[in-house]
Write a structure and sequence with these properties.
The protein is 33% helix and 25% strand. The protein has 28 helices and 35 strands. It holds the Pfam family Fasciclin.
């Protein structure tokens, strides 16, 4: 019975998905080489070397391996050969025994040593074997001392070395699973296999160069190194290496010895004695004396999986036991960590992973003070400011705090002068308790070391504390957290009415609010956004329009309510158009253009004047809802306006001295004298 087409397609899809990473990159190389004939593979070759790679699609277009340029060459895919006069590689390699196959696949030296060590009869005879055969270049790269020790005792040392490269069964690349071990034919000692997502396969950290060459009695894989037996765990390597003495002490103090002795596949980035010596003594003593910080430090040097150097051909992110990540990459022959070539000795193999020696200590955020976090971030100028203000002790000890540190760009014109007011302001940038931004919620209240209460505002595109919005992911240190913010924070000093009264720019507005009976509303607890017209805004109105507005108390109240929304919107929340419902009922449109806030397309003169019950924006125009815009103008203010200007006069003599407002005051005073004989 025929299989239904959908099920057949599903089966084919699952079969394709089951291909190993190596087979996937090999297939990609076949696709890139097919224009040159059957069974031709495209390989990337590092310029100036003999190193070749089958690569995936991304690497194909980048044309780089470890940051170095490559050239594309075309050669027969594994298992095929050319035929004179024909295109491509149409013929399969002749199937012969392993010994003969070694000579065909470019491992003539292994073939020679097999003969000299009397291994030849075994790999010519019946059986089923797999041999990981070092290339000719691999044998040539051995030190003279090592090579001499092998060839001077061919019947024991060389034979044992070759048998360690063998497995007594047929193993293809699809069988080489990541993190597994194979028992070698030398005392059943394990061979470690790693099969990485980028298609690279390593055997004891030696890279497979040519894989899956079939023989009548097994299979041959060519590798780029002569591999050696390993019997030590990572912990035993630490205990026997003189250059890891300080690390040995630290591991013992943190109770990590049992982990590094246990079964598993880890990568230890082992800091040498030199790496510890580079750290300031005070910092090192603090970490070594703090069990939690020390454990975080060491776990930050342990990757969750074994990563051989040969598998790294581009940058990748690796997770540590501490839960953090490290950027592991390469630059030419050098491995890099977080972009720095600090690995001094690589691929020291252990039974439970691999060790790379590093000459710099990698201190995670969780082992740092807030001060150290700030010094290494885009808030280093803030660090100088807090230090000058004598507040470093709050940021270097065991006090649980969160620092709201403005980014360096805030101080592009220089640091402010430290005085008592600035010191108090900086104290209000230090929040009591160690916070995490992901747990902050809208309306939350935070207490500062300056005894101020700060509000949290959560918006669709931003998270703000008062007028300052978080500009980067927070960094959590040992006892404190760093929030990088986009501006200096200005804690509120009073209600909306208190702030307006204290600012002479708003004296006419204050008088109008009082006349319209809105004072109590703007004094009560709430969440207001007020677009506050300045005296200049009233002055700029056409005279007739101004007279009419100030002469109609009901219309005045209506207009003033149009300037107030019953929710707090700070400037950091405005990246696109934001619509607010005013207390008058109509919508207000707030937008950002050329880094300037606009309200109903009018530019705002000053943003984020914080109050305990809201935020104020100074505007140099009086906003009017569409339905309330005047149709005709008069020349004189109506009598009810007299009281408004009388109040404004009492609030600000500055307005009376303004050359454009002075005539209005003169006419009002004259009218008042005619009607009442003076004040």
């Amino acid at each position: 019975m025929a299989r239904p087409l959908p099920l057949l397609l599903l089966a084919l899809g699952l079969a394709a998905a089951a291909k190993s990473p190596y087979q996937q990159v090999l297939q990609h190389s076949r696709l890139r080489g097919r224009q040159h004939g059957p069974n031709v593979c495209a390989v990337q070759k590092l310029i100036g070397t003999n190193r070749k790679y089958f690569t995936n699609c991304k690497q194909w277009y980048q044309r780089k391996i470890c940051g170095k340029s490559t050239v594309i060459s075309y050669e027969c895919c594994p298992g095929y050969e050319k035929v004179p006069g024909e295109k491509g590689c149409p013929a399969a390699l002749p199937l012969s025994n392993i010994y003969e196959t070694l000579g065909v696949v470019g491992s003539a030296t292994t073939q020679l040593y097999s003969d000299r060590s009397n291994l030849r009869p075994e790999i010519e005879g019946p059986g089923s074997f797999t041999i990981f055969a070092p290339s000719n270049e691999a044998w040539a790269s051995l030190s003279a001392e090592t090579l001499d020790s092998l060839v001077s005792n061919v019947n024991i040392e060389l034979l044992n070395a070759l048998r360690y490269h063998m497995v007594d069964k047929r193993v293809l690349t699809d069988d080489l699973k990541h993190g597994t071990t194979l028992n070698s034919m030398y005392q059943n000692l394990p061979i470690q296999i790693h099969h990485y997502p980028n298609g690279i396969v390593t055997v004891n950290c030696a890279r497979l160069l040519k894989a899956d060459h079939h023989a009548t009695n097994g299979v041959v894989h060519v590798i780029d190194k002569v591999i050696a037996t390993t019997t030590n765990t990572i912990q035993q390597i630490i205990e026997t290496e003189d250059s890891l003495e300080t690390l040995r002490t630290a591991v013992a103090a943190s109770d990590l010895s049992s982990l590094l002795e246990s079964e598993g596949q880890y990568t230890l980035l082992a800091p040498t004695n030199e790496a510890f010596e580079k750290i300031p003594r005070e910092t090192l003593n603090r970490i070594l004396g703090d069990p939690e910080a020390l454990r975080d430090l060491l776990n930050h040097h342990i990757l969750k999986s074994a990563m051989c150097a040969e598998a790294i051909i581009a940058g990748l992110t690796m997770e540590t036991l501490e839960g953090t990540t490290l950027d592991v990459g390469c630059s030419g022959e050098e491995l890099t960590l977080n972009g720095r070539p600090i690995i001094a000795n690589k691929d020291v193999l252990a039974t439970n992973g691999v060790v790379h020696f590093v000459n710099e200590l990698l201190i995670p955020d969780s082992a740092k003070t807030v001060f150290e976090l700030a010094q290494e971030s885009e808030v280093s100028k803030s660090t100088d400011l807090f230090r000058q203000a004598g507040l470093s002790s709050h940021l270097t000890g065991s006090e649980r705090v969160t620092l709201l540190a403005p980014v360096n760009n805030v101080f592009k014109d220089g640091l402010p002068v430290i005085d008592s007011n600035m010191r108090n302001l900086l104290l209000n940038h230090i929040v009591k308790d160690q916070l995490s931004s992901k747990y902050l919620y809208h309306g939350q209240k935070l207490q500062t070391l300056g005894d101020k209460e700060l509000r949290v505002f959560v918006y669709r595109n931003n998270l703000c504390i008062e007028n300052a919005c978080i500009a980067a992911h927070d960094k959590r240190g040992r006892f404190g957290t760093l929030f990088s913010v986009d501006k200096m924070l200005t804690p509120p000093t009073g209600s909306v009415m208190d702030v307006l009264k204290a600012d002479h720019r708003f004296s006419t507005l204050v008088a109008a609010i009082q006349s319209a009976g809105l004072t109590e509303n703007l004094n009560r607890p709430g969440t207001f956004t007020v677009f506050a017209p300045t005296n200049e805004a009233f002055q700029a109105m056409p005279q007739g329009e101004l007279n009419k507005l100030l002469g109609n108390a009901k219309e005045l109240a209506n207009i003033l309510k149009f300037h107030v929304a019953d929710e707090i919107l700070v400037s950091g929340a405005v990246t696109a158009l934001v619509r607010l419902k005013s207390m008058q009922g109509d919508k207000l449109e707030v937008s950002m253009k050329n880094n300037v806030i606009h309200i109903n397309k009018e530019p705002v003169a000053e943003s984020d004047i914080m109050a305990t019950n809201g935020v104020i924006y100074a505007v140099n125009s009086v906003l009017q809802p569409q339905a309330s815009r005047p149709q005709e103008r008069g020349d004189e203010p109506a009598d009810p306006a007299l009281e408004i200007f009388k109040q404004a006069s009492a609030l600000s003599k500055v307005s009376q001295r303004n050359p454009r407002l002075a005539p209005v005051y003169s006419r009002i005073l004259a009218r008042m004298k005619e009607n009442s004989g003076g004040f």
